[in-house]
Amino acid sequence: MTEAATRRTPGTPCWTSLMVHSLAATQDFYHALFGWEFTPGPRHLGPYVRARIGDRPVAGLGELPPERHLPVAWTTYLASDDVDETAELIRACGGTVAVGPLDADDAGRMALAADPEGAAFGVWQEREGLGTEESGVPGSPVWHELMTRESSAVGTFYDMVFGCDSEPSPRRSDGPGTAPGSESDVRTLRVGGRPVAAIHGLGGALPRDRGPHWRTHFAVTDVDKAVRQVAELGGYVVLPPQDGARGRTATVTDPEGAAFTLVGTDG
Q1: Residue 250 CB-half CA count within 13 A
Q2: Closest Cα partner for 34 from 106, 109, 139, 174?
Q3: Alpha-carbon distance 54 to 62, whole Å?
Q4: Fewest beta carbons within 10 Å, which of 63, 121, 157, 263?
């Protein structure tokens, strides 16, 4: 289903972006996998492009400075009506603000932050830019999940900062891309009563090389075919295709190691 582009309620995932070492190679990978086309975006953090499906933006890709030898990861942005106020709340509630708040040209105002467990996320206050405008079609982000050590305390952080409501989901979250297994500590993050993301407390199963992190789920028509494409394009398979209560999913990485989950659609 395609959602009309409307102003996002605070706390709702509204954008996802990726900072990489080779922007050109990464564009080639996602163009081949998702059919993305690219247009120039705000350059406040260096070279940056917006990925589009048709004429609608779905994600952002940027290039790290050559001297920044950092691991790459997709960053989930949460909507805010006032980024400056949200940044103060993040600090007051035990999180950190690494970048900003600052203007992204005329599109909006943003900040890059981390929750008390260290999971990085972005904050986005729209002006002209509405964030992701295409949802549910192949190649678009359809769900976001936070992988952390324990869900309760970090859930309270997001509730306090964004006015969300994180509710225990002892069996599984309400999202379309929830992977089966390890569902004993799960909370569903709700905004206005609507599920918008999930928080998974993985305890000792959290990968040490990643630490707490947000993960973006992208829709594809055929998960198995997409996984084969990922391998052919130089990416890696983390969790092979499997069926769950919410459909067929797989977790993969692009050639630079950025992990994301593929979620099957009905077409």
Answers
A1: 23
A2: 139
A3: 20
A4: 63
